[in-house]
Amino acid sequence: MKQATSPAGVERQDACPTRLTINGEIVELAIPPWTSLLDLLRERLALTGTKKGCDHGQCGACTVLIDGRRINSCLKLAVTLDGTEITTIEGLAGVDGSLHPLQEAFIRHDGFQCGYCTPGQICSAQGLLNEAQATTRAEIREHMSGNICRCGAYPNIVDAIEDVIHKRNSDPRMPE
Question: Which fold has domain 101-170?
Answer without folding.
Answer: DNA polymerase; domain 1 (1.10.150)
